[in-house]
Amino acid sequence: MQMTTDLLIVNPCDDEEDNLAMLCCTSAEGEMFLMSRFPDEDELEIIFHDKPSALDGVKVTLSPDRLLIEIAAVDADALGGNDSLEILHSTDASDLAEVEETLQNILEGIGTYISEI
Predict the structure, then answer these.
(1) Is 93 helix (H, G, I), strand (E, B) or coil?
(2) Running DSSP on this structure, what letter comes out for residue 78?
(3) What is the superkingdom listed in this entry's lineage (predicted)?
(4) pLDDT one-digit tens code per residue, 94-110
(5) Cα-flanking dihedrals φ and ψ of residue 18, to 5°?
(6) How are strands ordered across the β-sheet holding 59-63?
(7) Bridge partner residues of 42 (DSSP)
(8) Residue of 44, 40, 1, 43 whose CA lies nearest to 24
(9) pLDDT of 111
């Protein structure tokens, strides 16, 4: 599955929300993807098409114009029946360090992060 967004919106550590790390984006068609995790939890939460799912073992690859989310086949219902979601983005290169920090915080100890930056 694929979606396109102008911007990846991130917060590596929201002090007002118990240090929640969050990445979010929306497509021109109104599709929303949100991935978040509190530092003391063993799972991350994905919200896709307004459906929340708690997952672990997520693999995320970030490149300058693409974010690839891969999940276990048994969790495919979290992504509308797919085991991957490719998000094509136009995030400014100067903002990618914060995107990378956020993904590292979300995936630390429970997932795999691959940087192609």
Answers:
(1) helix
(2) G
(3) Bacteria
(4) 999 999 999 999 999 99
(5) 55, 40
(6) 2-5, 84-89, 66-70, 59-63, 112-115
(7) none
(8) 44
(9) 95
Q: What is the pLDDT of residues 25-79, one digit of tens each?
A: 999 899 999 999 999 999 999 999 899 999 989 999 999 999 999 999 999 999 9
Dihedral sign (CA 96, 102, 104, 106): negative
pTM of the predicted structure, to 2 decimals: 0.94
Place of tokens 């979601």: 85
Residue with tokens 């599955």: 1
User: Of 84, 90, 85, whose CA–CA distance to 65 is shortest?
Assistant: 90
Q: CA separation (Å) from 10 to 14, 45, 77, 82, 89?
A: 10, 14, 24, 24, 13
Positive or negative torsion for Cα 75, 77, 79, 81: positive
- Phi (first) and psi of residue 46, to 5 degrees: -115, 135
